[in-house]
Amino acid sequence: MTKFSWSRLMLLMMLMFVLALAACGNDDASNEEAPAEEDATTEESAEEEAGSEESAETEEGTGEGAEEAPDGSAETEPKVTEFEPAFPEQTRAPAVETETELNEEVIVEGLGVTWGMVEFEPNRLLVTQRDAAELLIVNLEDGSVSEPITGTPEVNSEDQGGLLDVTVAPDFDESRMVFLTFSQDIEGGTVTAVGKGALSEDETSLENFEVIFQATPAYEGTLHYGGRIIFDDDGNLFLTTGERSDVESRDRAQDLDAYLGKVIHITQDGEPVDTNPFVEDEDALDGIYSYGHRNIQGIDFNPETGDLWIVEFGPQAGDELNIVEPGNNYGWPVVSYGLEYSGEFVNEGISEHEAQGFIEPRYYWDPTSAPSGMSFYNNDAIPEWENNLFIGGLAPNYIVRVIIEGDTIVGEERLLTDEVQRFRDILVTEDGALIASTDGGLIYKISAAE
Question: Is 293 a catalytic residue?
């Protein structure tokens, strides 16, 4: 071999070494840019932080052009886990499609994260702006938005915190009372708090706002506040909370001396309802209704059966749809149909709830649907939707329609998949329109076409 040939060989080998080194460097850079586990939590500010676990899932093939699942289910993506359901209808329900012709329109745009909504008068909504801690009035007929209502509480708006849910008292026409949930700074950290105030006659302020309940203990964190509220037929409030996400706090979901990871039942003055299941237990907090939850962001009563349903975030997969009954334990973080964001098992990888003494979810999603606000369709404007459940999906981006027979999910549909929006809350208006708010500042209206 000539001297010239040896030179060319040495140059070629050096070039190959440089290219291999560059490839390794790119891999390292990708690892550095990967989100930390605490930033990937499923609600999650995955939501608020770009590059989080949920954000990475928003481009999945659930929109236009998504292929039909081979098993005929609404889910077209492969499972994240290898867990088997406890019963056949517990996951991946058959795909269904609304036959009614629908109008889908954006009523309002330019808002912030509209976390909670309530219709306090026909076609008029009170809506919360989570990050700005503002309460607004939205008119669905003309799309107008009021100036912020004064008198709202101070909040901690870091990460998933801020002004959260809103509802009005059953006797609102007389009392004008508005109830809010929010993340509040107190000694020792933050809590999910509930407060109330009267909407002034001119609708510009909340008068005499007071905090009526704090989901103690406080925790030095800014994730998993839960925060949904709903009234029962007796005029009492159900409040949902999260277990504050971190490994060191999540076990409190199993503890009856903490309001973390619970469904809570209180009066309009913030006192425990005297029929709650643990009022005779000296070692338990009287306001607890159910426990063993991760992060509940949807709650509503089934108008057909009267059952109280919730939807809660799993970790990586394993989001759960549950029927809540007093005193029940739903298993988190001992059992889960999901995985840690690292891909490792939760606890020891135990998924079977009933065998461990816990309540099996009526349904779960794998992969995640990142479920937020939800509402049963208790109207006859779209007859085929009567008593169906609608859930906002944060990532992937869609609204989930769930068909329920008794306590069994028999069908699932995914709406507005092409909009690429994080659907935060859902409500049904008196005239039968489905209203959905998004983290991107939009409010959608879905109704039957004339």
Answer: no
